[in-house]
Amino acid sequence: MEEFQKIIGYEFKNKELLTEALTHSSYANEHKNKKIKCNERLEFLGDAVLSIVVSDYIFKNCPHLPEGELTKLRASLVCEKSLFQFAKKINLGNYLILSKGEKNSHGDERPSILSDAFEAVIAAIYLDGGIEHARKHILRFVEPEILNHKPKAFKDYKTTLQEIVQKNPGELLQYCLVDESGPDHNKHFVVEVHLNSNVIGKGGGKSKKEAEQQAARQALELMGY
Q: How far apart are CA 112 and CA 100, in angstroms?
């Protein structure tokens, strides 16, 4: 426990919280008579703390990203794959309290077990020292990932479709708004793209431009591009 606290850079006032965070359900089930707490409840709380800290950070530090890209970035940072990599950076598997069966089947290397334990440790830090200590611990892992994040290049499907259609003189490309729904603050538009009189694509979005792009994307897919 002392060694692990040095690795994560946080010393617990209540050591029982750390023990609980590192205890897998298999060990608790193996020692039912001792009423040992496993990390499943802490994992639940840690997931929420992780999400709010990451959301707050990327909202404040990525002002250039729209809502959709913020959602994708957050999802990539809090998914099992990322948490597994974070857990490996602190050799979390070496400190897990597992049943004999889980140890023998290399449970200390399993992504699901390590990622859950990583969230449980976040919750333990949060309960023991508050949100700022939890934030410091989380950002140690996610901040470098955010700084290295490269947003995907914007695909201008409309321009691509227009360039293809222009190769055949006389072809007429038109975008038609066919549906508009929702309140002013949360509109949804549906657009069809017509080649001459034929519908070749349909798309929706929160703006007419986004709906047109999605309609053009569908048209390109149907045309084999």
A: 18
